[in-house]
Amino acid sequence: MAIYTRSGDKGETSVIGGRAWKDDIRVEAYGTIDELNGFVGQARSLLQGEALADLAEQLLEIQHELFDCGSDLAYVSLDESKYKVTGEMTERLERWIDQLQEENPPIERFILPGGSEAAAVIHVCRTVCRRAERRTVTLGRTTEINGEAVVYLNRLSDYFFALARTVNTRLGQSDIEYIRGAKVFRG
C-alpha cells in the first residue's frame, strides 16, 4: 500500500464530508492539534521510570483524546451524533490537575519553561495547546463546531502547566521563577 495519494498536490486535502484548502482554518485547527500530539508523544517518551509512569499513562490517554478532538473538527457539516470530545473528558482533566497541584510547591511568581528536559517539553505542549485553542476558537467563529473541544483544549493547557511542575517536583528539579516580575500568586 502506498503512503502517498497525490490527491493533495494542488493544495487541497480531504476533510470529513468534502475537501478543503490546506491553509483553511479548519485544517489549521486540527493540524495544530496534530502538532500538539507530536509534542505530547515526545514528552511521554521522556517520562521514564516508575516515579513518572502514572503521568506517562495520562499522556497516552490525552494522545488518544487529541485524535478525537481533531476528528471532531474535521467535519465539514455539523454531525453532533459523531462527536467524541465530551464534558466528562474535561472533568477528568480537572481531577488530574487537582491531584497534580497537591504535589506541587506553592507558587508566587510566573514560571519560566524549564527545569528538567521533560518539563521543558511539557511547557512546549502547553504553548502549542494554547495555539490549538486559538485556532479552534477562530474556526468556531465561522462555523459550528463541537464546543466541548474548545473547553477541553483550554483545560488541557492548564493540565500541562500543572504537569510540568509535578514532573520537576518528582525529579527533584526546581521550577524557574520569573524573577523580574512581582509576586502575583497567593499560596
UniProtKB/TrEMBL annotation:
Pathway: Cofactor biosynthesis; adenosylcobalamin biosynthesis; adenosylcobalamin from cob(II)yrinate a,c-diamide: step 2/7. Keywords: ATP-binding, Cobalamin biosynthesis, Nucleotide-binding, Transferase. GO terms for molecular function: ATP binding; corrinoid adenosyltransferase activity. SUPFAM superfamilies: Cobalamin adenosyltransferase-like (SSF89028). InterPro entries: CblAdoTrfase-like, CblAdoTrfase-like_sf, PduO-typ. Signal peptide: none annotated. One of its GO terms (biological process) is cobalamin biosynthetic process. Its EC number is 2.5.1.17. It comes from the Bacteria. It catalyses: 2 cob(II)yrinate a,c diamide + reduced [electron-transfer flavoprotein] + 2 ATP = 2 adenosylcob(III)yrinate a,c-diamide + 2 triphosphate + oxidized [electron-transfer flavoprotein] + 3 H(+); 2 cob(II)alamin + reduced [electron-transfer flavoprotein] + 2 ATP = 2 adenosylcob(III)alamin + 2 triphosphate + oxidized [electron-transfer flavoprotein] + 3 H(+). Homotrimer. NCBIfam families: PduO_Nterm (TIGR00636). This is Corrinoid adenosyltransferase. It comes from Paenibacillus stellifer.
